[in-house]
Amino acid sequence: MDSKIRLVPLFTSQQISARIDELASEIGRDYRDSCPLLLGVLKGSFVFLADLARRLDFPVELDFIRVASYGSKLESSGRVKLLSEPVARVKDRHVLMVEDIVDTGLTTDFIGGWLKSKGPASVKLCALLDKPDRRLRPVEVDYRGFVIPDRFVVGYGLDMDEKYRNLPGISVINGE
User: Fold this and answer.
1) Which CATH number fits domain 13-70+77-167: 2.40.420.20, 3.20.20.80, 1.10.10.350, 3.40.50.2020?
2) Which of 2, 103, 109, 142 is catalytic?
3) Average of per-residue pLDDT across 77-89
């Protein structure tokens, strides 16, 4: 780790796990009879999606969409680019978009618009982290893990220039 980088814990793996149990229960009540498509937003959501999917005790389909808006910077570029679309059929399906974090709302809004153009039965959003203070576009988070302040966080799939995704908890960079 870079000696200038200081990580201050925000959520432990135990806190995250407990909250995912609660989210899985909420999602189960709404989707139990519909075999939804869980659409993970890569790369950040892969850890969260894997843990969430294992807690759902009914059939689901998993797929991924990959977009870019950050590059190697700590701030969003403001432009969202579709890098890879899902293989699974979206039309007439109940789609649950799974995000690691909703920040400015630009990426989530872009993906939501793209999904709606494919004719799904419904689109809802599950986000592990919600940072509403940074919102530039209105976004409705249907299933929310934690609301966080405007701090740059890493761990549990979230990265800084592709580093720190592997950390089991979520930490604030440099103790902001």
Assistant:
1) 3.40.50.2020
2) 103
3) 87
